[in-house]
Hints:
3 helices; twelve-stranded antiparallel barrel
Amino acid sequence: xxxxxxxxxxxxxxxxxxxxxxxxxxxxxxxxxxxxxxxxxxxxxxxxxxxxxxxxxxxxxxxxxxxxxxxxxxxxxxxxxxxxxxxxxxxxxxxxxxxxxxxxxxxxxxxxxxxxxxxxxxxxxxxxxxxxxxxxxxxxxxxxxxxxxxxxxxxxxxxxxxxxxxxxxxxxxxxxxxxxxxxxxxxxxxxxxxxxxxxxxxxxxxxxxxxxxxxxxxxxxxxxxxxxxxxxxxxxxxxxxxxxxxxxxxxxxxxxxxxxxxxxxxxxxxxxxxxxxxxxxxxxxxxxxxxxxxxxxxxxxxxxxxxxxxxxxxxxxxxxxxxxxxxxxxxxxxxxxxxxxxxxxxxxxxxxxxxxxxxxxxxxxxxxxxxxxx
Length: 374
């Protein structure tokens, strides 16, 4: 029994020494690993790849919207030349009464206009809003090619400065528009069409905080308008209801910024808009000292029945995002007034005011013009 007890004591002591040896070895391994980890340098955090933001193309969307709206303005001025109550009365004597051929109005006419336009657009999502100032001039010629049938051709040249201070961006737009209009008078009724083709150049600038990123790209537009009016007179006053349909398609080219910090690339953009305009003109004229002074005002309800403002892909290095274009509210109103002084049967001076009101946009335009006939 004593020998068995001794053997048990020896075995227990041996097991205890083995456990202590294993614990010491494990402790040494953990300490060595900790020391090696403490001596190794930390892994550096990778620098994030720059990524574009939707706001970098604010000026591009503003320029595209400006092209579209300038096309609409020119179309509507051309249409108004054909369906204005004063012009209709001079051309065709819609109230009746007749006159001899000796008093027939001159067959040809020419006109020149200078205008200034200010427009503002409010914030829309990522678009922070802008202010646009435009000045331009128009020259045109027209002719009566048959009884009650008139045609005209004109050229509009404009320069627009676009300011987007909240996005630290600006742009300029130089736009040339070629316009054609025609009208047919049938008693108190007048049907008119207007066509516009435009082309221009956009130059943009963006403050990146480390210099300016700049870009230059092209702009184009095409548009058509058809308008029907009815002349209703009472002595020297008139009411002229009007119904019109307008379609405009504008496009801007792709851009590549240069300079500044992280210059971006962007694909071209297109914008299409179809609208119906319903309204009326009211006016009155006075005759004094063989001169005719005419004043009028108009109001129109606008329904943008279809709008398609295409998306743009913006790229910065290997990163890219898709940004949707901005458009008008569906419903809006147009209003304006005009004063005209006919100095003779062949010379007329006029001044116009035109305003557009939308949910997030307003524009105000003043025009001064002269018309000569022969």
